[in-house]
């Protein structure tokens, strides 16, 4: 009779033999190809994408993606390692000159049966998928209520909460987002639907341990709210911003494009009834966290967007999820 200890040893040996002896596993010298989906190139002054393979001991770069406009082209490479167990793609900053991957891993996945599917879950996130029903936001302003009373240009502010908590699937007033790894951060934007579009950031933020947005973004009420101490003043404890006056913004040298008149009317529509403003939440590399509201450019990972459109300040605007997320696949190039 074989003892339980012997069975465990045999099982362990079988696992090791299976992994090391898998005829489909990529080996050093094999030609492979990585193909990307829903992932566009980034400007050279933002950084570059780089693909890496690893086997539990060594991690080796197999190619940098040159800056391009539009979709990334497939990349062919020769496998530099035996028994590679996985691959991942990073964002490397513009100053990168070493042979080590950054912490900003955007896609990752294991090799299985000779190929690999690289996804954002476990790369950008803590392992969980992105929240597909984050909740609703409101149009609301508080910075001018003392001076002008309520209501006072409520359509000039956007905050990530709803006065109808039952509208959110998770049942709280706050928006719910999946926690990200430390190399990544969420950023909120209002986007004027013109040609070209005008992107205005309202700040960067991270959810708490319950995945809820229950603290301010890094710009507080924003320089266009009129609050002298806009990072700390105000009553809201969620991400958001107000665009009512340029008084404080002008003092610190921040101006909106000349075609935008304050206070902004975020609920405006065009002649056909289409929303003139959209709300977007992107996921950004944390190394550019100090950008100003008009300096930043939205990163290519854009999981949330909704048309704002008409409605009162108490009307929840549902934040829509975009399931067409970046991904990549690696396969044998000779197949």
Topology, pairings included?
Layout: H1 4-20, E1 31-37, E2 48-54, E3 59-65, E4 75-78, E5 86-92, E6 105-112, E7 115-118, E8 136-139, H2 145-148, E9 157-159, E10 184-192, E11 198-205, E12 240-242, H3 247-251, E13 277-285, E14 301-307, E15 317-318, E16 320-321, E17 327-332
Antiparallel strand pairs: 1-4, 1-17, 2-3, 2-5, 5-6, 6-7, 7-17, 8-9, 8-15, 9-12, 10-11, 10-13, 13-14, 14-16
Descriptive labels:
single chain; 335 residues; mainly beta; 2 domains; five-stranded antiparallel beta sheet; 3 helices; 8% helix; elongated
Give a summary of the structure in a few sentences.
The protein is mostly beta strands and 335 residues long. The chain is 8% helix and 29% strand.
Query: How is the quaternary structure best described?
Result: single chain
Tell me the number of strands.
Answer: 17
Order of helices and strands: HEEEEEEEEHEEEEHEEEEE
Q: What structural class results from the helix and strand content?
A: mainly beta
Range of helix content: under 10%
Calculate the mean pLDDT score and round it: 87
Q: What can be said about the biggest beta sheet? A: 8 strands, antiparallel
β-strand percent reads 25-35%
Instruction: Give me the side-by-side strand order of the main sheet.
Output: 3-2-5-6-7-17-1-4
- Number of helical stretches of at least 4 residues: 3
Which residues sit in consecutive blocks of at least 5 with pLDDT less than 50?
A: 1-19
Radius of gyration: 24 Å
* Total individual domains: 2
Please report the distance between the alpha carbons of the first and last residues: 46 Å
Q: Write down the overall geometry.
A: elongated
């Amino acid at each position: 009779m074989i003892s339980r200890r012997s069975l465990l040893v045999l099982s362990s040996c079988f696992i090791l033999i299976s992994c090391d002896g898998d005829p489909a596993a990529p080996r050093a010298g094999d030609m492979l190809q990585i193909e990307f989906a829903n992932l566009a190139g980034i400007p050279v002054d933002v950084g570059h994408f780089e693909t890496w393979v690893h086997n539990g001991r060594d991690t080796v770069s197999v190619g940098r993606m040159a800056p391009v406009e539009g979709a990334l082209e497939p990349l062919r490479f020769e496998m530099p390692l035996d028994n590679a167990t996985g691959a991942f793609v990073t964002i490397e900053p513009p100053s990168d000159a070493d042979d080590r991957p950054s912490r900003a891993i955007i896609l990752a996945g294991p090799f299985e049966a000779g190929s690999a599917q690289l996804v954002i879950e476990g790369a950008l996130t803590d392992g969980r998928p992105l929240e597909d029903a984050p909740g609703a936001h409101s149009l609301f302003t508080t910075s001018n209520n003392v001076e002008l009373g309520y209501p006072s240009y409520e359509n000039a502010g956007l905050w990530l909460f709803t006065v109808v908590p039952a509208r959110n699937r998770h049942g709280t007033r706050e928006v719910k987002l999946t926690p990200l790894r430390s190399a990544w951060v969420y950023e909120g934007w209002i986007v004027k639907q013109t040609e070209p579009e005008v992107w205005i950031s309202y700040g960067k933020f991270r959810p708490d341990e319950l995945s809820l947005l229950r603290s301010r973004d890094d710009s507080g009420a924003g320089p266009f709210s009129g609050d002298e101490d806009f990072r700390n003043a105000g009553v809201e404890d969620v991400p958001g911003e107000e665009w009512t006056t340029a008084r404080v913004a002008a003092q610190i040298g921040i101006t909106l494009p000349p075609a935008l008149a304050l206070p902004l009317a975020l609920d405006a529509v065009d002649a056909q009834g289409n929303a003139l403003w959209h709300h977007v939440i992107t996921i950004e590399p944390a190394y550019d966290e100090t950008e100003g509201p008009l300096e930043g450019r939205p990163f290519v990972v854009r999981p949330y967007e909704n048309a704002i459109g008409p409605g009162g300040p108490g009307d929840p605007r549902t934040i829509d999820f975009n399931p067409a997320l970046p991904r990549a696949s690696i396969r044998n190039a000779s197949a």
